[in-house]
Amino acid sequence: MSVFTVKVNPLTGKSEWELQNEDYDYHQEIARSGFADMLHDSERNQKYYAGIKQAINEMHSRGKKAHVLDIGTGTGLLSMMAARSGADSIVACEYRGVMKYEKIIDENGLEDRIHLIPKRSLEIKVGETGDMKHRANILVTEVFDTELIGEGAIGTFQHALNCLLEEDCIVVPSLARVYAQVVSSELADKWNRLQPVTDGLNTLLSTPDKVKACAGAAAVHDIQLSQFPSDQFRTIVPPTEVFRFDWMGREPLITKRSMALPLVSQVDGLVQMVFMWWELDMDTRGEVLLSCAPVWAHPMSETSNELPWRDHWMQAVYYLPQEVPVKKGDEITLWAHHDEYSFWFNVTSPQSESPDHSRPVCTCGLHVAFARTRIGAMNDPDRRHKYIRALQELVTPETICLCLSDGSLLAPIAAKLGAKKVYCIEGNFLTQNLTMQYVKHNKLEDRVQVFGNNKDLLSTIESLDKVTLVIAEPNFITTVLPWQNIYFWYLKNELSQCLSTSVSTLPMAATIWAMAVQFDHLWKIRAPLHSVEGFKMTDFDKLIESSSLISDSPVEPQPLWEYPCRALTQPFQIFNLNFVTNTEQSIQTSGSVMCEANGTCHGIVLWVDWDLDGNPKHVISTGPQETPEVKKQVKWDMHTRQGVFFFPTQKSVDVSNVFYYKVNFSLHNGDIQFNFDTM
């Protein structure tokens, strides 16, 4: 049996019906669950195993049987560890696809040792007629995310302690500590606050008061802080413990807390944000530590050249509602807050007004409409400079512009540069509101007219001047891969009756580039496990592979600046697009490129270069920011995601290998199919 699903094509903006497997939603959840990534985390696995062994041994040393409860068992790994460690009984609960996970337990010959319950732990009943005959005295669980508590850990542990566990139970992990590092960073601040737009000498657009005053959003910005350039932030206060969570209940688990920590600034600077991470005690004595700290604060950094890599738990950036200037030696207060699912922070000085302890809420629309990287792209001075220089050469007092992007500042910039009129299509009410704020604040209402969609513009076509210049960054909130932003091309052609016969287009063209690479670690998110800590994972590998084939695109978006890789070839062109023409034809291209280095090829990375006006100095690249060198680490654009085509298996390559590519692009329906191979 199959089912129909609705998908919005990001290239054409049209809704399409697709015939899918009846278990499509389930397979999509499995493929994107991150289980494989977690199970590739050998440190996590080993320290959970150590904690489980110690808990069972300790319970036996008390003269008691070890009755283990595994909440959110997933693949059953922790339950199987408990079985091999001598647990007397094991109950595992999992509400997602438990029948399929049984195969993994069966494959390891432990089906008689583990009792699976297809429920959430909050639904489990204890008693003779319940799901569990008696309470457990050991809990093992992994219900954490980058924010530690974002998956409901507090409620899960509270319920287990109250309803499912004995009073003298042991919990693995037993304790969590949360750390905050107060920092200043001009680069990271560009992901949070929009800066005024200048042409290098004069201010073209000033930031609306509502945008400047907005406290931002409390939503966590999770990144691989170890890859954040060390020269792009300054520590105001070193890492400080702000919260502890005692998962064993020795101290009450509180759903909401606020802490005021008196601190002293170590340097002069501007307090702008907090870096956050956490660590776990995997045993009751604090001897087995699992840390998510970045490289400069990791407890293993002094004894190991290579730290554990993980993508399921990263570090977080929290932007403060207000910046606070400080001098070295100044006393400040770090306010740390949490509710059941999230954290937020504030910093005050003795001169500050009484702080607002409520969770920050975006009031300007910017932080709701856009991802952090999009805000960074809007602030990128090099990118802005290229757009402004290109517009200065194209805009005259007679120019009639049409801007096709979501939340782009190009429309008011073009008006400021002297365009006679600028029409702007804003299909999202949040980005439309943001554009209107800039138009009104900079007094451009008489020259910038904003429409909600193409139909609104076409309905007034009789009264409009013909467009002489179409402009786009391009960027749309519905796109995830850089080339999907050619959606503006489709919009332009739908509005052809509004355009003059001599209309110019910016960008005028685009090139899709590719490069074969070897990743340091990112390959693990798609690689089979085979076995984990001595447990067979063949059936799990098959499940992930089949679910991925059903639900995943062959090319996935990744912010590659966070994931080091090395070039195995020089960049090579896949195809070019000319936006001056219409979109009726299709493109088929194929070719080959020689491998230029020995190594392991994990996949092909793809990106787009936008040619604004034919001037090589006015090319906006979403790919490498420096010319890649074979065998060397690639420096990627930090404000966009690139595409990654992972090979199904790792491929050992040398200079005798050839990479082949074939691309089919149906411009009529916006379908792009990438195929790569090597021989």
From TrEMBL:
It holds the Pfam family PRMT_C. Residues 215-349, 509-676 form the Protein arginine N-methyltransferase domain. Keywords: Methyltransferase, Repeat, S-adenosyl-L-methionine, Transferase. InterPro entries: Arg_MeTrfase, MeTrfase_PRMT7, PRMT_dom, SAM-dependent_MTases_sf. SUPFAM superfamilies: S-adenosyl-L-methionine-dependent methyltransferases. GO terms for molecular function: histone methyltransferase activity; protein-arginine N-methyltransferase activity. One of its GO terms (biological process) is methylation. Essential arginine methyltransferase that can both catalyze the formation of omega-N monomethylarginine (MMA) and symmetrical dimethylarginine (sDMA). Specifically mediates the symmetrical dimethylation of arginine residues in the small nuclear ribonucleoproteins SmD1 and SmD3. This is Protein arginine N-methyltransferase 7. The lineage of its organism: Eukaryota, Metazoa, Ecdysozoa, Arthropoda, Hexapoda.
